[in-house]
Write a structure and sequence with these properties.
The structure is a homotrimer. Chain A is α+β, with helices and mostly antiparallel strands. Helix content of chain A is 15%, strand content 29%. Chain A has helices at residues 17-29, 47-53, 130-143, 245-249, and strands at 5-10, 34-39, 66-70, 81-86, 89-94, 111-114, 167-169, 172-180, 186-191, 202-206, 209-211, 226-230, 235-240, 256-261. In chain A, helix 1 (17-29) packs parallel to helix 3 (130-143). Chain A is elongated and about 65 Å long. The interface between A and C is large, with 33 and 38 residues.
């Protein structure tokens, strides 16, 4: 059997001492753990960004992988810390809804445990760094085979992320940009498969620009031209072939995007 | 025997969900694979940069390491994806020349296979993310011991990167800046050992500046002064001791650099 | 027994070919080594930053972990390279004081060895890249079980980092900002526990601003308000709840910070 996988997703920034300290804590408890960096570039305290990030990543991991997520504006307040089993994956997260988009693909109720047993935490818990002092050690203990029910009581309520939903009105789908990827591609909340709900092939509006057709991949268009396509995560995406759509259109998260039946 | 090594080199940016998803795909197929991040900061779609980056890194790895490279402006078009054996290393790359600078040190013809066998890909292949859906799973299967000849037919032709060559004219070597490193040091395409072809010790011209002599290391010059030296990868390098040469000289990739026999 | 851990801390920047080459060198000598990135974002050649970074990270690792630190403005000059045992950890460092803040918590004299035995280096040593050619191979050999006394002679002198010390004057503690973290929080050199030396609860001055009270965690204050608290590393920290104190106060490393007895 392979050494257990513990992934880290934080808003601490690349090269932060906070990430490095968490790695040390994990390895001190389970020297055999294999730490995998997912991202340390979640924008600071942006639980909304984390909520969109996790579903594009977590489901690709082997079943029962452990994922520690530290995007935690409420650190040190009364917000809970949770252990969650969802989609066959295991997460350790602040109770701020960052993980609940993973429920969409999950028919069953998740197992959720509120972390309460201090014997699985570090001896001294900083009021500002529960990632290092609670989540990392809990993950390390789980990776050694600890039954998660030892971590605390089962929880039946938790914070939920409520993202904007795309809506269908007669001949148009109305959504918005929910993520800008590192290429400047605009990922929307309009599912690619919902485009078939329109009566005729769609054309698109975003940031005052019109796009006439959906392509299959970037390279189908001339370099520099604006295209609509279905992203690798299945959502409508607006991109510039070999360019940066966010900069070129001056569009950002929250900007409206519309798909309209061709006349 | 150690767990197999799979390195990742991409233009996805640090903290990108695209990198994280590739890690998940690799580990889902081979949970024992050890993933090593080489760089996710290749400039977007800059196959030229990748071509210079790989020879400074890949040869240091143990024989038969697997290297996945995703700098792929042609994703989803007819460009091929390749498995390559070169310099004792194994690469999975788009057929855009990003790997062919590794051939310079290689006397033998490389083994090149065109990826064609879909049973080693993910079930659903996105038109925009072959790194996740084809290259990562192929690498993971190889790391489990798959014979690469199962991946597809042997290829005898492939795209080649044609970088600018330094040229010798009587008393001067004429080259250019091909890479700017993170310190702002200017790496040129003039091999350090070619400087011995000049009749007398060289002096240098770059961006309108003259340098009188070659030093062995940064610290031989005063802080802030401009120096020429042979880089750790064996090429002529222009640097500012404890400073940033690219910013100070306002020089960039493509700027001419000349080494001239001292009069 | 788990595979040995080798951590990397450098000023090479994320995605640098220099970091990637070091990983290859380590794995070529010990394919079973597990490489852990701590940070590649130490500001270029900033040994002072490294001196503050390491004590917030290294002590969390399992005993006898190996830590390679490459922040080395003197590369290629006569400065020594060292193997150090301190706080139960093992470091490979340039002799520039980057590690000596770790001595503060250490009652015993550290074992320090000057790297001299070239058989544990790469065959060709670049004058500008001792991280790849000396430190990485030395760490890899140690991870295979090499007795460190084989690396060279014991050293009894070494460079020491002399950071600014906070001072107590009657009713005030006078210190300064020594680190700005990725959130813009200002970490000072005033130990949190020294605040009890003041006769009455402290108030604080920084960058022309006054703070009335110490909080326990960010969330105790309104979003956007300025707070003083004890950081996760135990030092007085000035922060803006859900904001960036460094930007908001226009304060940087070296700015004075004062804690004063309340009147």
């Amino acid at each position: 059997m392979s050494d257990p996988i513990i992934t880290l997703t934080t808003d601490f920034g690349d090269g932060s001492s906070y990430v490095a300290a968490m790695k040390g804590v994990v390895l001190s408890i389970n020297p055999a753990a294999r730490i995998v960096d997912l991202s340390h570039r979640i924008p600071p305290q942006d639980t909304r960004y984390a909520a969109y990030f996790l579903p594009t990543v977590i489901p690709y991991f082997p079943p029962a992988s452990l994922h520690v997520v530290v995007v935690d504006p409420g650190v040190g307040t009364e917000r809970a810390l949770l252990y969650v089993e969802v989609e066959g994956q295991r997460l350790l997260v602040p109770d701020n809804g960052c993980w609940t988009e993973l429920l969409r693909a999950e028919p069953r109720s998740p197992l959720v445990i509120r972390l309460a047993e201090k014997r699985f935490w570090r001896d001294r818990v900083s009021a500002t760094f529960h990632g290092r002092d609670i989540l990392a050690p809990a993950a390390a203990h789980l990776s050694l085979g600890l039954d998660p029910r030892n971590l605390g009581p089962t929880a039946t309520e938790w914070a939920r992320f409520q993202g904007p939903k795309a809506t269908l009105h007669q001949d148009s789908l109305n959504g918005e940009v929910v993520l800008v990827d590192p290429f400047g591609n605009l990922i929307t909340n309009i599912p690619g498969e919902s485009l078939s709900l329109l009566k005729k092939p769609a054309r698109f509006k975003v940031g005052g620009h019109n796009l006439e057709r959906l392509v299959r991949t970037y390279g189908e268009a001339e370099p520099g031209s604006l295209v609509a396509l279905v992203s690798s995560s299945g959502m409508l995406e607006i991109a510039v072939n070999q360019g940066n759509a966010a900069e070129q259109l001056r569009v950002e998260v929250g900007s409206p995007v519309t798909a309209i039946s061709a006349p």
